[in-house]
Amino acid sequence: MEHRKRRMLLRCVSYGFVIMLIAGIITGGYVYIVIGELQLKISQNKIERQALELSASRLEKDSLVLKQDLETYLMFAANGNLSVNDMISNEVLQVEYDQLRVLEDVNLPALEKNSCSKFQCIQFEKDFPRIPSTIWKGLLGTEDFRFLEHRGVDPLAIARAIIVDVIAMKFIQGGSTLTQQLMKNLFLSNERKISRKLKEMIYALYIENVMSKEEIVTLYLNEMFWGVHQNLYIKGFHAASLAYFNKAPSKLDEFEATILISLLKGPNFYNPAKGIERLKDRSTAVFKRLQGLSLVPKDDRLLWSDARWDNYQKDYAKRNKQKTLYQYFLLSKNSDVFLEPFEKLVLFGSYLTHNKSIQERLGVDADYATKILVGKRECDSYDCAGVFSFYSKIEREKRRAITEEFHQVGSLFKPMVYDTFIDLGRSYQDIVSTEPITLKLKSGIWKPKDYSKARVDEVSLKEALQKSKNIPLIRVASEVGFEKVEEKLLPQIPRLKTPLAEFPAQLLGALELSLEEVFLSYRNFLNNKCQQIEQTDLKFEESLLFYMSVASETTISRVVRPPLSHALVFGKTGTSNNGLDNWYFAFDGRQLYVFWFGVESERDKTNLRISGASTAFRMFQDFINYRGKQVSEVYCQTND
After folding, report:
1. Which of 301, 366, 482, 492 has the fewest CB atoms in 10 Å of its CB?
2. CA–CA separation, 288 vs 299, rounded Å?
3. Judging by DSSP bridges, how do beta strands 512-513 and 64-66 pair with one another?
């Protein structure tokens, strides 16, 4: 019997050992697989981070800038030591009404790189020395005050959480360490499963083995989600500081840093726009806790008063309307190197400002969009290095929008039409009747109209060109012969339907072109005009280029402002389809600019009562006036 018992005991021990061995192998294998998954996720995460390098910018002497644009730029500068007020005090800038005059050439610092790989997201990664102590101490005191003592998983915190949850009979605390929270947010979901919790703990234990505590805190503060602002996903403490306080983290006081940390618990729930009272209560409670841990001064005067909270909420709402974060975001994701970062920032600011005001004024819910193409006069394709492009629908393909999508051009090409009249023997001093004209086409009777309320019996060809008259244009085309006009225009304007005599409305803009086609057509036309002036006895002051460069005489006379109004910049508006297509083209002797604003889909018969002068031109004007460069003029010079 004794022998049999001993054999059974040995057998049980053997079985137990085998079971433990198998369990160990399975557990070890599981841990090995989980760690392998983590390593793969980490490597994939590194591959996805491809931030665009944002070069420095230069402000030219005697140019103009807007204070808000320059402050926005400097807020996102990698070197945050430069301020607008200091530049004014040092007489680098001079205040002129609501503008700033640049008194000497200024080299602006390069901008921070946006390292977020998510769609519509902002993130600025910083190393530990650049994290203010008020922020990382506040984080540890709030989320994991035993962080420096555990190795990724805290048994005491887990036990404490279990006791609290059992007493409350519901899930209140999770017992997760800072490292576990980081792993969950980076690589796992929020599902409440044991398998997910096990992975989280294994991840945390592994990370604590391969990273220092400083590196974990740094990664946490750089990667955590801090809410959504201006339709942008905010990641990391630096972007959060700019979003919530409009200043760098190094400039936050103790209570502002506490507010930032308090938001981590629920950025949407505590958002200042809709949860200011909740944020106030939580921030005060967190600050008191940090005082108890001696992590912030025990001075209640640092707490905000109700009046301070009210002012903060108003300022926060105002900043959100200005969309400075989105302005930077558009810049950070544009890879075109032709324009300097400050120029892009001004351009995107102009787009955001006018896009918003136009839509508010119209009060019409429509599929609005903006497209912009800027390039050197030497460029002969969209792929030229000297080209910048923008499409407001960033979720769609920009190249296709600029090169393959077509819009009615309206009056945009009238200068080319009038130029053919001169080539066919007419003169800009010729007088043309403005009386109604009727053409008999195969499709029926057609009567062109002019929409100006001012009524005169006759105008010169020059005035008809500058004021974009329709009836005089069709009358002269009929007199010189549509066939001859067609022969001249076909090489210049793509997609021109023939015979032109049966489709004369095309001369008034009833044809569709892409932005690239507009750019290239005008590029060839203007280069020929410049060559004509350079190689013949034609005086610039008597040329079409000059006539369309005197803003006070053209269709933008009522809306143009200095310095553009004082410069000779060739420009032409275009409006079609009751305001659904609005254009502005410009040429300053060096660069060509094509701006389009309109409705892309679901078009109806609604008359939007807008024009190229009230939309696309305004965007162009604010850009050209305040981009920190002197306004160049049309003297047909080539780029250096």
Report:
1. 301
2. 10
3. unpaired
Which residues sit opposite 595 in a β-bridge? 372, 584
Q: How far apart are CA 637 and CA 640, in angstroms?
A: 9
Fold of 121-322: Penicillin binding protein transpeptidase fold (1.10.3810)
Given a contact cutoff of 8 angstroms between Cβ atoms, the answer to whether 29 and 76 are in contact is no
* Domains of the chain by residue range: 1-48, 57-108, 121-322, 342-409+511-640, 416-510
Give the number of other CB atoms < 10 A from CB of residue 178: 23
How far, in Å, CA of 611 to CA of 624, rounded?
Answer: 19
Q: What is the pLDDT of residues 241-263, one digit of tens each?
A: 999 999 999 999 999 999 999 99
187-231 per-position pLDDT tens digit: 877 777 777 778 888 888 888 888 899 999 999 999 999 999 999
| Rounded distance between C-alpha atoms, residue 84 and residue 71, angstroms | 6
Q: How many residues does the chain have?
A: 640
Are the C-beta atoms of 421 and 480 separated by less than 8 Å? yes
Q: Are 581 and 406 in contact (CB under 8 A)?
A: no
Return the number of other C-beta atoms located less than 10 Å from residue 228's C-beta: 15
**What mean pLDDT comes out for the span 429-439?**
95
Long-range Cβ contacts of 33-37 (<8 Å, 24+ apart): 34/198, 34/199, 34/202, 34/203, 35/202, 35/203, 35/206, 37/199
Distance between CA atoms of residues 466 and 414, nearest Å: 10
SS3 46: helix
Determine the Cα–Cα distance for residues 441 and 633; give it in Å rounded to an integer.
43
In angstroms, how far apart are the furthest CA atoms of the chain? 132
Fold: same for 121-322 and 416-510: no
- The type of residue at 319 is R
Question: HSE on the CB side for 84, CA within 13 Å?
Answer: 16
pLDDT in tens, 71-100: 999 999 987 788 999 999 999 999 998 899
The domain 416-510 is placed in CATH, from the list 3.40.710.10, 3.50.4.10, 3.30.1120.10, 3.30.70.1400, at 3.40.710.10
